[in-house]
Design a protein that fits this description.
By secondary structure, the protein is mainly beta. 6% of the residues lie in helices and 47% in strands. The protein contains 2 helices and 12 strands, in the order E-E-E-E-E-H-E-E-E-E-E-E-E-H. The strands form 2 sheets. A 6-stranded antiparallel barrel has the order 1-2-5-4-3-6. A hairpin with a 4-residue loop joins strand 7 (108-111) and strand 8. The radius of gyration is 21 Å and the shape is elongated.
């Protein structure tokens, strides 16, 4: 299992008690969907190491977890700060026009106002509350398109196409030649 096959669930915040339990932070939209976890992958360097969960007690976005092979404070301290991962196939299925950010990578972005293909979505950049879609045009130019749910017109998973109302004039800024040279 590689990091590319997984998504980050959260991370170990601190130890809890003396018997090897840890407090974890769940960086997910619906933490309660994870109250029956049986195992997670802990990132150690560039490797993901499986850890089996003996017990988990949820409290909002935080949980107290006892791992099977972590039996004392020293073992729990070694996990502090480590990231927790789950396989991508463990994500709940989304339908309609909801999507996970990793899911739209490689999709064609189409401007719904002009019905023209802008390019291929290469990356999604989370900049505070604003999402930016990094789109590579056919001319290999990078265009950053702000994403807001109100701009979404259609998500076509079968054809890997995202139709978005691109703000008027934005593409002109990126794609017009620089005449000041």
């Amino acid at each position: 299992m590689t990091i590319d096959d997984c998504y980050q669930l959260g991370y170990v915040v601190k130890t809890h008690g003396l018997k090897g339990e840890v407090q974890i932070y769940l960086d997910v939209d619906s933490p309660n969907e994870y109250k029956n976890l049986e195992s997670v992958f802990v990132r150690k360097g560039q490797q993901l190491v499986p850890f089996f969960i003996e017990s988990i007690s949820m409290n909002g976005v935080k949980a107290i977890v006892a791992f099977e092979d972590v039996l004392d404070l020293k073992g729990a301290q070694e996990l502090k700060g480590h990231e927790l991962y789950l396989p991508l196939n463990a994500l709940p299925e989304l339908d309609g026009d909801e999507f996970y950010l990793h899911e739209i990578l490689g999709f064609q972005l189409e401007d719904s106002s002009t019905s023209t293909v802008v390019g291929r979505i290469e990356n999604v950049i989370e900049s505070g509350p604003q999402l930016l879609l990094s789109v590579l045009t056919k001319d290999e130019n990078e265009v950053l398109i702000p994403y807001d749910r109100s701009l979404l017109k259609e998500l076509d998973r079968g054809n890997q196409r995202l139709k978005l109302r691109v703000p008027e004039g934005l593409l002109d800024v990126y794609l017009s030649g620089n005449d000041e040279d």
